[in-house]
Every structure is written in C-alpha cells, then in structure tokens.
Automatic annotation (TrEMBL):
<dbReference type="GO" id="GO:0006002">
    <property type="term" value="P:fructose 6-phosphate metabolic process"/>
</dbReference>
<keyword id="KW-0315">Glutamine amidotransferase</keyword>
<dbReference type="GO" id="GO:0004360">
    <property type="term" value="F:glutamine-fructose-6-phosphate transaminase (isomerizing) activity"/>
</dbReference>
<dbReference type="GO" id="GO:0006047">
    <property type="term" value="P:UDP-N-acetylglucosamine metabolic process"/>
</dbReference>
<dbReference type="GO" id="GO:0006487">
    <property type="term" value="P:protein N-linked glycosylation"/>
</dbReference>
<keyword id="KW-0032">Aminotransferase</keyword>
<feature type="active site" description="For Fru-6P isomerization activity">
    <location>
        <position position="361"/>
    </location>
</feature>
<comment type="subunit">
    <text>Homodimer.</text>
</comment>
<dbReference type="GO" id="GO:0046349">
    <property type="term" value="P:amino sugar biosynthetic process"/>
</dbReference>
<keyword id="KW-0677">Repeat</keyword>
<comment type="function">
    <text>Catalyzes the first step in hexosamine metabolism, converting fructose-6P into glucosamine-6P using glutamine as a nitrogen source.</text>
</comment>
<dbReference type="GO" id="GO:0005975">
    <property type="term" value="P:carbohydrate metabolic process"/>
</dbReference>
<keyword id="KW-0808">Transferase</keyword>
<protein>
    <recommendedName>
        <fullName>Glutamine--fructose-6-phosphate aminotransferase [isomerizing]</fullName>
        <ecNumber>2.6.1.16</ecNumber>
    </recommendedName>
</protein>
<dbReference type="GO" id="GO:0097367">
    <property type="term" value="F:carbohydrate derivative binding"/>
</dbReference>
<keyword id="KW-0963">Cytoplasm</keyword>
<feature type="domain" description="SIS">
    <location>
        <begin position="42"/>
        <end position="181"/>
    </location>
</feature>
Amino acid sequence: EKAGYKHFMAKEIAEQPAVLADALRHYVENSGGVNPALRLPEGLDFTQIDRLTMVACGTASYACHVAKYWFESLAGLPCDIDVASEFRYREPPLSARSWALFVSQSGETADTLAALRYAKDKVAKIVAVVNVSTSSIAREADLALPILAGIEVGVASTKAFTCQLAVLALLALKAGQDRGRLTAAQVQAHLADFALLPGLMNHALGLAGEIESLSDQLAEAQDVLFLGRGPMYPLALEGALKLKEISYIHAEGYASGELKHGPIALIDNRVPVIVLAPRDHLFEKTVSNMQEVMARHGKVLLLSDAAGVAEAGAGCWQALTLPQVPDLLAPILYAIPAQLLAYHTAIAKGTDVDQPRNLAKSVTVE
Ligand code: F6R
C-alpha cells in the first residue's frame, strides 16, 4: 500500500505532481495544450455575489487563507475566512448576495459540517471543496468540487492541501474573469503557467536530500519560527502546523512584518527561523525582516529561488533553492519543502509520522 515508501506521508508528498495533474485535467480543458480553458461546473457565476465566506479547520483553513489573497487580488472579491469552530458560534451575519465555501479533505469534520448547516439558508449558495466526494459536506453542499487528490492516509495533510490550493486558484481565476478583472487572455496565461506546475513540483521534491541533511539540526530545536508575507504568510502557518504535529517541536508561523511586534523577543542562536520568500514584489520587505533576525543571531533557513538566494542568502544559516515560479503558483510549490522539512525532522526525532500522538485523520467531534 505504501508503494515502497517508508510512510504514507512520504508517498503522499511524492504523489503531488501526479494528483495535481489529475486535478488540472479535470478542471482545465486542454491543460498543457493550446488555448487552455477553465472547465468548472455550471452555477459558479461570480457576478452574482459581492462577498465570499470561507470556512474550514486546520490545514484546510490555511488553504482558504491563501485563497483569500487570490480572490481579493485577482477578482476584487471581498472574502472572510474563519476556522469552523469559531465561525459556528459567532453568529456571523451572512448576506444573500454571498456564497459560503467550505474546504475539507475528509468532508466529515464536525465543526465544518456544523458551520455549513449554519450558513445553509443565509447565503445564495453553499460550495464545498472536498476530497471525499461521498462525504457529508459534499452531500449537503449545493455544489461540491472534488480536489481529486486520491485517498490520503497520513494524518498530516499534504497532497490534499496542494490540490485544495489548486482548485481554489482556479476558482479565483474564474472569479477574476467573471468580474471583469482578468481578460480571457490573462486567464489563459495563468492556465498555461498551471500546466508547468507538476514539473516544478517534481523539481521541489528533489530538495529532499538537502532537507534530510538539515533535519538532524532542526530536530534539536525547541522552537522554530516560520515567516512569510502575502500568500506565503498562510504557508508559514501551514509549515509550522506540519512541523509541530508530526515532530512535536514547538513551531509558530508569523507574517514577516509582525515579527517586530513581539515574536522577535524569542530569537536567539538556538531558534531556527524558516523564511518562505520567492523573489516577488514583497521580497525586499521580507529580507529586511530576515536581517532583523540575523542581527539577533537567529538561524535563518531561507527558501527562495535562485535570484532570491543569490541576493539574500549570504549570512543565512542555510538556503534552499526552489525553481522560479509564477506568483500565483508559489504557495502550491512552497508547500512541498515545508512538508519535507516536517517529514525529515520527524524522522530524525523518531516520531510516528503517519499516526502522530493525540491526532485522528478525521475529526468528527467538536
Ligand atoms: C493537519 C491536518 C488537519 C486537517 C483538519 C481538517 O495536517 O490534517 O489540520 O486539515 O483536521 O480536516 P478536513 O480537511 O478533513 O476537514
């Protein structure tokens, strides 16, 4: 069942280029060919709404958090995001000119399902992004979009996260097109970029050896910080969640710019600080936050592309070079080294990677 891998998690990390390509074939007409076009089900007309509310738990909620950046910047569509356990008890006002979107790998998470039921008669449409198409959340939604990741066994979500992101990015492109923010040609250019993603992901998987060789040192850390800006901020949250849940090392993700508002007090030469920073328009700002860490002897591990590592790698404890990637796809690509860091650190610590203590794959109690 593990197809030669030591753990389901390793297998599921490695499967990502293939399952993502499956999802693209499902949602993109002519993926990888000429004139690619979105192929989404009927009933997703984003001109009908002026707000989108996204609700999920854990890793799925970080996918929503990334998607908020996309929906707002590509489509000018205001988004709310919340974790389901808070959303359901807050009595959030919901408008009839909005949709509520629920993201869940299992489709059975109790809080997410309860949040869906709360939203039911208050919004124009309930959309679900799920892995298990026969699940309660898929059945109770007005429209369920499968992420096509295949069965995920490892408790730590990996391939479901990147497939959730892919489906959400395609929805954001549809929203951008419907709302007149993106031309058909721009959408096509994004879809052409998407076709390159499985190849880029394969390249990122090639970092496993380098990451493994860092893992002994990371395994000694008491605390690890992850930093990112823009859509890489929720990736920092996801990287920290993955590390803490399988290696039991205390880890936190922060928006890079928040560092000086408190967490920088934690920095000393024993705290690895993992910076997720493709060389995009926010890079210089992230680098200046990174330099604040280095000035306090923090051990910076920079994840960037060749240009970013060339510009800012000096003085870092370590740097890992990812392929250059279009901005929209960066969070999907950078999820891979974040997963590999957690995986190899957990192996170095000797923890039970597929069945971490205290955790269950599907959380059906609140
Ligand atoms: C983390 C993880 C959890 C789940 C969360 C939601 O690796 O797997 O945080 O993401 O329990 O589960 P689903 O997506 O099944 O609703």
